[in-house]
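for ur thesis appendix - Type VII secretion protein EssB. copy paste whatever u need, i formatted it the way the template wanted (i think)
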Amino acid sequence: MMKNKIEIDGVSYEYNYEDTMWSVSFAESRTRIKDDAELDILAKPSAYFVPVEIQHENEHYTFDYKIAKETYSFDEVKKMARKERLRALHNISNLEALIGTRFTFFLHPSNIIFDENLMPKIVHRGLKGILEPYDLTSEHFFKQYQSFIVAMFSTKYSFDNLYSGSIINARGTALLKMVVDAKTTEELAEILAEAFSKEKESSEKKMALVPKKTFRTYKGLAIGFIIAAVLLAVPLGYLAFMKMPYQNELLTANEDFLKTDYSKVITDLENTNPVKLPQASKYILAYSYLQGEKLDDKKKDNIMKNLSLKSDEQTLLYWVYNGRGEFDESLDSAQRLQDDVLITYALAKQLEEVKGNKKLSGDESVKKQAEIEAELKKYMDKIEGSDEGAQADE
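the 3d part is after this line
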């Protein structure tokens, strides 16, 4: 097992590495946790964070972070082409959206990884006033971001050196000079965006300089490229006009979920087919709909505790359909799960809907109500029988 100690803003964090599992532990006395349930929000799936499992034993809290194999470390990104480094660094500016939420974190080469699209993911994160780091200010984020950028291009200074004050001397290139002279996170993002644009343009020009002796070969291939372009027009059109907006919807919903704006999450995803959503998006949508359910607090809390990213797909779909008022679909999900309690709840919702449906004639309404009530009674009797059997066993 490898170890690594990070010290930042007067706080030390000791990381243990074993294959793709990174762990950070805290003694109870080092936290301000009053109830383990306060940590539940840290385990919720998010595009910003690495998945975590939390253990509390022997007066210690241990956070096990699962690092996907299709990710890149700071050092791996540093070896990439300049254009890719600029893209990865610019993407970090998105993390500013977390400032002002309950989440806290720190930017450090050992606490950030990048996915295959070079989007950053935070490994260890805390909770404001509960788990270190206890706070995250715009000033801290800016200084860490600034040092992170310079460290990505510098061969002389490490992040720790830069963050400790050496950054004022790191002016080796025009880009680094602009970064060091910047005053806000917005300025840093603009500098990176402009540098990326120039680098991309430069790369395209280099690609366009084809040696004359190979011109005939490329000319011959041109016909093939034209055919390929025609064949690719449809999927590329789909990517531009369908796939990208869809990904943006998922990202926006995730951001609103982190802000606990559950009604906004529902609005963000209202036009999506829940079956086609990724598991994480199904979870945040189901969780958001559950927030609005008229259940007593105890029942709702029990359901919330059992709802997770690992929940059965049909369980998540059940609460999405239920929240959307699609009770035939929610009943179907409950029957697939063979969950009598969920079936009963779906039937009760159906009954409520029929009673309020003014489009049905009196006879139709009475008939439908009778059918649903008969089914409802069957499952209610079944549940009561199970409860009595359990009591008899005790």
